[in-house]
Specification:
heterodimer, A: about 120 residues, N-terminal domain of TfIIb, four-stranded antiparallel sheet, about 20% strand, B: Rossmann fold, seven-stranded mixed sheet, 7 strands, transferase (chain B)
Chain lengths: ~120, ~280
């Protein structure tokens, strides 16, 4: 699972959970894969992200080094910033571990890089 | 037993390893999936040459995702079948994958996607595979959470195989209830094989539905139907039995075969008077 997905994933489908965001990450295996850098896409996606959540997610898996704590003004022209954002959003992948819902404490396992968001009958709204 | 996969088993059971394998090896399936994804993208009306973040619902082995990649978009895929997602991993698609059930809702926060596509997945939602499943409720949950996760003015396009009219109606009602505008576009409506259904949903105001492919003659749908029936009759050739036309034709045929035939007169094929 890439951190861009984590930045958008919620557990709001659980019964009784209002926002279910952000999910806490507990990673046991993190891998880095190279992805082509596309500055246009990163520029477009940054306004949609919750940067604070991204920073904390990166921090919790030990990849926050050198990552600014907030979005820099005029980031569109700052290639260095875009490259850092690209790396953390698309290249860092959580292979094994689990996500935890901040409200209910329900854990969602991540295996082979795929988070399992399936609910049981009792958990469906 | 019906041939429709959704009648045979729940999706996570039906798409087992064998079935999932087909989606990497069968070039016909791959071809069709790619074509339908292209058409979905066309109907999505994304701004040109801008990389977008798309949601692929029922992404399966990532065949549709590959087409999205080719067009320069980033995608996140949802699917309920672990075997299909395993195949997607093997194919090393660029998109990110999530194991989830669409009917339980789309687990993403509001406004993140520039569009959503789905190829041959929506029909699974009509099923009640578990005792607790209520298809209508699942459809509504699906559409309302999808609506929330799309950015304003984004579209969602679903290619699917409805079984009957009432399914179409159910779909559109639930989608409208969730706040979408739009409707169903039917490509090649007069062809049994090439006919394809696309549910095109729009957020943020209604716009005209895109034009369907190969549907120029639909305006006079009923007339076309009758014209075809007449043409079929003419092609079959034989006039109704025991009529004068039928008799004349029969005599003509016999003459051609060189058999002895009485000449045609004003009495040929005429009813006898009651006196006889």
């Amino acid at each position: 699972m890439k951190l861009i997905t984590h930045n958008m994933l919620t557990s709001k489908c659980l019964k009784g959970v209002m926002t279910g965001y952000p999910l806490a990450i507990n990673a046991t295996d993190v891998k880095i894969t190279e992805v082509d850098f596309n500055p246009e896409f990163i520029t477009r996606v940054i306004p949609k992200l919750d940067w604070e959540v991204l920073w904390h997610a990166a921090n919790s898996i030990g990849h926050s080094e050198g990552l600014p704590k907030s979005i820099e003004p005029k980031f569109e022209e700052n290639e260095d910033f875009l490259k850092k954002a690209h790396k953390i959003l698309l290249e860092v992948e959580i292979e094994e571990g689990h996500l935890t819902c901040p409200e209910s404490g329900r854990q969602f396992p991540i295996s082979k890089g795929i988070p399992n968001m399936l609910l049981t009958e009792a958990e469906v709204q | 037993m019906s041939k429709r996969p959704e009648h045979q088993a729940p999706p996570e059971v039906f798409y087992n390893e064998d079935e999932a394998r087909k989606y990497t090896q069968n070039s016909r399936i791959i071809d069709i999936q790619a074509q339908m994804t292209e058409r979905c993208l066309e109907l999505l009306l994304l701004p040109e040459d801008i990389p977008c973040l798309l949601l692929d619902l029922g992404c399966g082995s990532g065949l549709s995702g590959s087409v999205l990649e080719e067009n320069g978009h980033m995608w996140i895929g949802l699917d309920i079948s672990p075997s299909m997602l395993d195949v997607a991993l093997e194919r090393e698609t660029e998109g990110d994958l999530v194991l989830a059930d669409m009917g339980e809702g789309i687990p993403f926060k509001a406004g993140c996607f520039d569009g959503a596509i789905s190829v041959s997945a929506l029909q699974w939602l009509f099923n009640a595979d578990k005792k607790s499943h209520r298809p209508v409720k699942r459809l509504y949950t699906f559409f309302s959470t999808l609506y929330a996760s799309l950015s304003r003015s984004a579209r969602a396009v679903f290619q699917f195989y409805p079984e009957n009219e009432s399914q179409l109606e159910l779909l559109t009602t639930q989608a409208m209830k969730a706040g979408f505008y739009g409707g169903v576009v039917i490509d090649y409506p007069n062809s049994a094989k090439a006919k394809k259904f696309f549910l095109v949903l729009m957020t943020g105001g209604s716009g005209p539905l895109p034009k369907a492919l190969g549907a120029d003659e639909v305006e006079d749908n009923i007339q076309v139907k009758y014209a075809r029936r007449e043409a079929a009759k003419a092609a079959r050739g034989k006039p109704l039995k025991n009529t004068k036309a039928w008799l004349l034709e029969k005599k003509e045929r016999r003459r051609k075969q060189g058999k002895e035939t009485k000449p045609d007169t004003k009495y040929t094929g005429r009813k006898r008077s009651g006196r006889f």
